[in-house]
Amino acid sequence: MTRRLGLVIGAGWLLGTSGRVVGQQASGADEAAVEQQIRADLQHNPDLENDVIEVTVDGAVATLWGVVGTASERAKAERIARSDGAAAVDNHLKVVNPRAKKPR
Which residues face 91 on adjacent strands? Predict the structure, then answer.
């Protein structure tokens, strides 16, 4: 029983949410579908819908560019990209809080 459990856990660790082995190259159609899903989920997330986030997917790597209001929004955008099928995320999002007080 222990050996089987270890195999199941090991297999689960190797598979991304899309069922591909982590690090496996996606086809062009897969890349477009993952990119489209990430964009849709970012736009429909209430915490991120007002942020400007650009997404590209190359192979199994999603790249995020843009501006968000908090570090937690930056982390949330990365989690969304991973949950939508990206094996890795190159996160270039900048945190800019427009409500922060400017120094005098």
Answer: 64
Tokens of 85: 């099928």
Q: State how far the Cα of 93 lies from the Cα of 65, in Å rounded to an integer.
A: 5
What is the per-residue pLDDT across 3-42, written as a single tens digit (0 to 9) for each? 443 333 333 333 344 444 444 555 677 899 999 999 999 9
Residues 6+ positions from 41 with CB-CB distance below 8 Å: 80, 83, 84
Domain boundaries, the chain: 2-95
User: Where is 62: in which H helix or E strand?
Assistant: strand 61-68
Residue pair 60/20 in contact by the 8 Å Cβ criterion = yes
CATH code for residues 2-95? 3.30.300
Query: Using N-to-C axis directions, what is the helix angle for 71-83 and 28-44, rounded to 10°?
Result: 140
64 by Cβ neighbours in 10 Å (0-12 / 13-18 / 19+) ranks as buried
